[in-house]
Amino acid sequence: MSSASQILDIAERRMRQVGYNAVSYRDIAAEMGIKSASLHYHFPKKEDMGVALVRRYAENFQAALAQNTAKQMTAEEDIFAFVDNFRTALKEQNLVCLCAVLGAEAAGIPTSVADEVKTFFVANIEWLSSRYAQLGASAPLRQAKMTLSLLEGAMITSQVNGDESIFDAAVEFIHSSVPKS
Question: What are the boundaries of each domain within the chain?
Fold first, then answer.
């Protein structure tokens, strides 16, 4: 029998490439070499899989941020490491943030999945805002929202255009706007 983790690995990669609505249990099962009924054992509905996938993605993302905190990095270094998480996904994996893809589809995906995406964005805005506040930014919440939005949009725009310089320009702008500690 397949494991829930294997299913989520394949679903994540596929959804980051083509979106929620373009991925089916049949596609995932075919890639795994199993019957699609086997997926229903772990995730009775696609919505269940979507919720589990976004939660896992958010937990992994937050764990990566926590590793930086454990290294006792400065707030400025934390922000740069946050940006690097996106850079790695785009440049090394050729993938867009899962929540950017699902966020773009929010009107057409189950509410429970969209709510998990919103939770991901809110948590990251709060995390960034606290770092900007530590650096004395005049409007830390606004700057956090701008940073996350710019990264998410730049990933999508770069991938659509096949031009990483778009993402690089966004990163350069973010780096130049971070208050120096």
Answer: 46-177
